[in-house]
Amino acid sequence: MRNLLIAIMVLLTSAAHAGKTYTLENKDGRYFSTGAITIGKQDKEIFGAAVLWALEQAGATEKAKSAIESYDPNTLKLSLKPSVPSGDYNYTFLLTMQAKDGKLLYLIEGIRCMPKGVLGAFSTVNFDKVNLTKKPQNKEFIDRFDAILDEYIPIIATAVKGKNMDLTHWEAIVKGQIVKGMTENECLMAAGKPATVVENTQRTQWTYESGMIVVFENGKVTAIVK
To answer: What is the largest CA-CA distance in the chain?
Structure first.
């Protein structure tokens, strides 16, 4: 009888995930999602596209490293903490990505659900501390995030696949330096988003909070004023 009950539970779990590409796993009380997205580009290009996508989520910032939890061009690995709204709630989590063998590996962990509003912090649901025996109502938040994954991860895949990267100045990017001849994307990877952007018919000027000015003509850096 016990074996039959176990078999039924496995079938029910499989049915719940039927048709889902990306699922939320639970191991020893730790909730996470992990997998690999086939991109079909060079690993450096994949990493660059992932960094640009991460910067877009984080908003304007002086340095890429300050916009992202961690960022390493040497290992082609980056981490950030996104916030995904769903109804009256915001889901936050740690997203770690790494470009390897033409794929984008990802790990989502440290998931929290917080109601919107000033009192949200007092009723945050930490998935890794959920006790469904005492608070079965929290399963709603877990199931909702499981459904979010099938929408959220394809967004990343589409964004990374759709960005064409020219990374001819890789050594400068690794050092966090902007040099002449760089494209705008390379500058974003090296130094993050500028504080202000001014454009006219002949050139584009980026100004960073540090006071550094970068001038582009025809999409390439032609002058740097520090």
So the answer is: 78
Is residue 53 within 8 Å of 163, Cβ to Cβ?
Answer: yes
Q: How many CA atoms lie within 13 A of 138 on its CB side?
A: 17
Which residue blocks in the chain are alpha helix, DSSP H? 2-16, 43-58, 64-67, 139-162, 170-175, 184-191
Separation of CA 61 from chain center: 16
- DSSP β-bridge partners for residue 183: 220
| CA–CA dist 140, 125 (Å, integer) | 11
For 31-40, letters b (16+ CB in 10 Å) and e give bbbeeebebe
Q: Is the pTM higher than 0.90?
A: no
DSSP label of 21: S
- Distance CA(164)–CA(40), nearest Å, equals 12
Name the token pair of 130.
Answer: 């959920």
Q: How far apart are the first and last CA of the chain?
A: 75
- 47-71: pLDDT as tens digits: 999 998 888 876 544 444 445 778 8
Cβ proximity of 64 and 71 under 8 Å = yes
